[in-house]
Write a structure and sequence with these properties.
Elements (H helix, E strand, L loop, with lengths): L4 H40 L3 H24 L4 H18 L1
Helix pairs in contact: 1-2, 1-3, 2-3
Length: 94
C-alpha cells in the first residue's frame, strides 16, 4: 500500500478507471453478440423487417465502439478492426 497521499489518490483513480473500462468492454461484447444473433436470424429468414433490426443493432454497436475509442478504452485501430469485422459479418449474410 502506498504511503504518499498522491499515490493513494492515484490508486483510487486507477481502480475507478479500470471498472469503467471493464463496463465499456462488457457492453461492447453484449452489443456484438446481439448483432451476431440478429444477423443469424436474418440469414434464416431474410426480410426487410429483419434487415432493419440488423441495421439498428449495427448502429448501436458502432456507436458504443466509437464512444469507447473516444474515451480511450480502445485504440482507434482496435475500434476500426471490430467495426470492420461486424460489417464483414453483415456482408456475408447478404
Amino acid at each position: 500500500m502506498a504511503n504518499i497521499k498522491s499515490a493513494k489518490k492515484r490508486i483510487l483513480t486507477a481502480e475507478r478507471n479500470r471498472l469503467q473500462n471493464k463496463a465499456y468492454k462488457s457492453a461492447i461484447k453484449t452489443f456484438t453478440k446481439r448483432f451476431q444473433s440478429a444477423v443469424d436470424d436474418y440469414k434464416q429468414n431474410p426480410s426487410d423487417a429483419q434487415l432493419a433490426v440488423v441495421q439498428k443493432e449495427m448502429s448501436t454497436t458502432f456507436s458504443k465502439i466509437d464512444k469507447a475509442v473516444k474515451t480511450g478504452v480502445f485504440h482507434r485501430n482496435t475500434g476500426a478492426r471490430k467495426k470492420a469485422g461486424l460489417a464483414r459479418l453483415l456482408k456475408a449474410a447478404s
